[in-house]
Design the sequence.
């Protein structure tokens, strides 16, 4: 939401009240840096009050009553925080890090620290974490609790895909695709798993295992030799929908959708520039 | 949010502020001190310039009335240096709010400034700025918190690095010599 200078002058009234709380009424002035931080906090809180349940910003047709919007935003922020925390606590009960340090540190140590230190009153726009473990579809335009909620939502969805396979298979799949010890794996865990699933479906192979044999790869090479990029995209989209449907997360198609283009480009590029084979993506034997 | 807007906001004079200064101005008459209307305006302008210089925004009606109230009975302020001293003190106040990283309240800083101004600096603003406030702010930045307990009072004993005039020692030597 873009604010005019007139809007900002109105918001300054809320900022001043917030600043009094911030300084415990001990200081009659604050620095520009603090003012900007509090202004950002007010704008963030107001933006929450203008969001519908799908987290899309809706247009507010009436004349803005910023004080009212700020109050609504504050209660929405607290609700959001409580919901996300509850979701996180439930997730932690059955959390499996697959032995991967980066995943554990981000999800267990990092997110716990976020809930401990998140300042929803003065810095609600600051999500504090660098979120080192990459999810499949992060939204860097989001910040504050919305970013964490989106991140956690992503982790939960990816976890559903991972539940398709036994823990050992996933560890082996990761271990076979990383040159270092698998515990130091820095990429997304779901990515190679999903690549295996969709590639298997392309060659009509059952997805009960993550292992790709030499014969499977030959078949995939053959498939890539006869299809265009657009056809590949269409097929991957179709298969992704099938997988999500089977997992009962059809509504989350948009979350996984960006990986389709990525998979298609990587498969095609690999086939065209690496001896007409995509074997680099699929270790044929697990260590 | 750009700095220009913050400058405008910080220089928006509340009507209350001038009234408050004028009320305090009447009270300071008892000490033979009074600001003219021009001097009040200049003081407010100087305050705005300080806010801009130190990148701060005033939340309420400013600190000028409090500043006048704090320093009006200082023995080192008279009608000749009154306005000029106030200009310099308000500038010091904002400068050292920043230097202390906002870890000190207005009242604590006023108390410290007043006490040092009278008892250590004997009215010397330069000494207040370059020695007392500099040491105090440096200590606060390094984590010194004892001033909270005393509300900024009696800080010299903790921060002074010089041997100062000791009235007790003077009295005892005087007794030895003449009694």
Sequence:
């Amino acid at each position: 939401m873009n604010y005019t200078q007139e809007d900002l002058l109105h918001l300054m009234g809320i900022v001043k009240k917030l600043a009094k709380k911030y300084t415990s009424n001990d200081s009659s002035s604050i620095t520009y840096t603090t003012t900007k931080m509090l202004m950002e906090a007010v704008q963030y809180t107001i933006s929450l009050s203008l969001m519908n349940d799908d987290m899309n910003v809706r247009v507010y047709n009436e004349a803005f009553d910023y004080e009212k919007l700020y109050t609504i935003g504050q209660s929405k922020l607290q609700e959001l925080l409580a919901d996300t925390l509850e979701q996180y606590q439930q997730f932690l009960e059955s959390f499996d890090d697959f032995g991967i340090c980066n995943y554990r540190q981000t999800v267990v140590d990092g997110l716990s620290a976020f809930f401990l230190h998140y300042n929803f009153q003065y810095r609600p726009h600051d999500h504090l974490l660098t979120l080192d473990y990459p999810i499949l579809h992060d939204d860097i335009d989001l910040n504050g609790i919305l970013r964490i909620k989106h991140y956690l939502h992503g982790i939960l969805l990816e976890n559903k895909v991972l539940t398709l396979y036994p823990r050992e298979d996933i560890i082996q799949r990761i271990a076979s695709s990383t040159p270092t010890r698998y515990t130091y794996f820095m990429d997304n865990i779901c990515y190679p798993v999903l690549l295996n699933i969709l590639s298997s479906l392309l060659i009509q192979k059952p997805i009960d295992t993550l292992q790709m044999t030499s014969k499977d790869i030959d078949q995939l090479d053959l498939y890539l030799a006869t299809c265009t990029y657009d056809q590949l995209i269409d097929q991957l989209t179709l298969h992704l929908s099938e997988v999500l449907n089977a997992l009962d997360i059809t509504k989350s198609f948009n979350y996984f959708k960006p990986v389709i283009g990525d998979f298609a480009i990587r498969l095609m590029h690999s086939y065209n520039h690496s001896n007409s084979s995509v074997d680099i993506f699929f270790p044929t034997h697990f260590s | 949010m750009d700095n220009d807007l913050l400058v405008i906001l910080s220089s928006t004079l509340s009507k209350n502020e001038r009234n408050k200064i004028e009320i305090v101005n009447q009270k300071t008459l008892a000490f033979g001190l009074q600001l003219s209307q021009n001097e009040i305006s200049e003081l407010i302008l100087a305050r705005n310039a300080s806010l801009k210089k130190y990148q701060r925004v005033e939340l309420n009606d400013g600190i000028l009335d409090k500043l006048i109230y704090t320093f009006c009975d200082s023995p080192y302020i008279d009608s000749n240096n009154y306005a000029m001293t106030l200009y310099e003190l308000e500038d010091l106040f904002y400068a050292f709010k920043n230097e202390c990283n906002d870890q000190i309240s207005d009242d604590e800083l006023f108390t410290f400034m007043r006490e040092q101004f009278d008892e250590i600096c004997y009215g010397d603003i330069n000494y207040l700025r370059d020695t007392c406030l500099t040491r105090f702010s440096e200590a606060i930045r390094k984590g010194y918190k004892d001033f909270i307990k005393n509300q900024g009072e009696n800080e010299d004993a903790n921060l002074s690095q010089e041997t100062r005039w000791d009235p007790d020692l003077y009295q005892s030597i005087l007794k030895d010599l003449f009694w």
